[in-house]
């Protein structure tokens, strides 16, 4: 009964507004450094952008959006997607409902309609913000964000937003949520561009470039606040586990 109540529109609105209020508090009470220092001047002339982030490190990303950058974010249709969409709305960011998936789950997750909606938003001049990795495959960049860049002609910028005081969760993506009264870092990586006529090999190279770019900005952002990325090594650990399982079979 309690879980059903959390799914109601009233509960989703209340949770979303509360989350937005909390995130504003974190933003106002942390001293942020931005790197590169001139990044906003550099990207202003090439809008709209595709902003790439990692699952688990996405909660603080709204802090990086300047008021003059109209933006939409890809938000899951399930679970906590409802109140996350409300929180984004309160922070001035639109939501497109759907998420990346593989195999038979693509239709269930709403990936195809969401992809078309993102193309339309980019064509209208809105920046798109989305996680590069798909659920349960932490720190492995999927092909979706690359195909979005290829179809739209827009550059991908990897980004990390971290805080010195935070809670790190011991879940599949090592999610973090910032706490008030600390220091923060916003680090934006070099753009990854994919031509509309890019072949399969070029798209794979771009996927690896986005993946490496996200690793680099998170390593740098955490270094700026004197900490270590809690999700560092997740991809390698998963690969080692899979290899060990295959060898044992």
Write the layout of secondary structure elements.
Elements lengths: L1 H5 L2 H21 E6 L3 H6 L5 E4 L17 E5 L5 H10 L3 E4 L7 H5 L1 H13 L3 E5 L12 H9 L3 E8 L2 E3 L7 E3 L3 E7 L11 H25 L9 H15 L1
Parallel strand pairs: 1-9, 2-5, 2-6, 3-4, 3-5
Antiparallel strand pairs: 6-9, 7-8
Helix pairs in contact: 2-4, 6-7, 7-8
Describe this structure in words.
It is a single chain. With 249 residues, the chain is an alpha/beta fold. It is built from 9 helices and 9 strands. It has helices spanning 2-6, 9-29, 39-44, 81-90, 105-109, 111-123, 144-152, 200-224, 234-248; strands spanning 30-35, 50-53, 71-75, 94-97, 127-131, 156-163, 166-168, 176-178, 182-188. A 7-stranded mixed β-sheet has the order 1-9-6-2-5-3-4, sandwiched between helices. Helix 2 (9-29) crosses helix 4, helix 6 packs parallel to helix 7 (144-152) and helix 7 packs across helix 8. The protein is globular. It starts with a helix and ends with a helix. The model has no long low-confidence stretch (mean pLDDT 93).
Could you name the ranges where pLDDT drops below 50 across 5 or more consecutive residues? none
What percentage of residues falls in helices of 4 or more residues?
A: 40-55%
Overall residue-averaged pLDDT value: 93
Query: What is the CA-CA span between the terminal residues?
Result: 43 Å
Q: Give the overall shape, derived from the CA principal axes.
A: globular
Structural class: alpha/beta
How many beta-strand runs? 9
Strand content: 15-25%
N-to-C SSE string, H for helix and E for strand: HHEHEEHEHHEHEEEEHH
Structural Rg: 18 Å
Q: Strands of the largest sheet, in order across it? A: 1-9-6-2-5-3-4
């Amino acid at each position: 009964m309690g879980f059903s109540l959390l799914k109601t529109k009233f509960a989703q609105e209340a949770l979303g507004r509360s989350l937005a209020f909390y995130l504003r508090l974190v933003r106002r009470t942390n001293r942020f450094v931005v790197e590169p220092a001139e990044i906003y001047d550099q990207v202003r002339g090439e809008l709209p952008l595709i902003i790439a982030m990692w699952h688990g490190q996405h909660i603080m990303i709204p802090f990086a959006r300047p008021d003059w950058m109209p933006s939409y974010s890809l938000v899951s249709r399930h679970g906590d997607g409802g109140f996350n969409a409300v929180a984004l709305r309160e922070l001035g960011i639109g939501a497109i409902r759907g998420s990346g998936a593989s195999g038979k789950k693509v239709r269930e997750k709403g990936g195809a309609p969401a992809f078309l909606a993102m193309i339309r938003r980019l064509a209208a001049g809105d920046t798109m913000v989305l996680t590069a990795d798909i659920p349960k495959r932490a720190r492995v960049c999927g092909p979706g964000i690359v195909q979005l860049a290829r179809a739209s002609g827009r550059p991908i910028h990897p980004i990390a937003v971290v805080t010195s005081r935070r809670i790190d969760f011991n879940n599949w993506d090592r999610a973090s949520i910032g706490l008030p009264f600390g220091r923060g870092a916003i680090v934006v990586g070099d753009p990854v561009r994919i031509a509309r006529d890019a072949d399969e090999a070029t798209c794979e190279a771009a996927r690896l470039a986005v993946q490496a770019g996200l690793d680099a900005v998170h390593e740098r952002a955490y270094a700026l606040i004197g900490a270590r990325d809690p999700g560092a090594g997740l991809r390698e650990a998963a690969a080692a586990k899979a290899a060990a399982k295959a060898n044992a079979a």
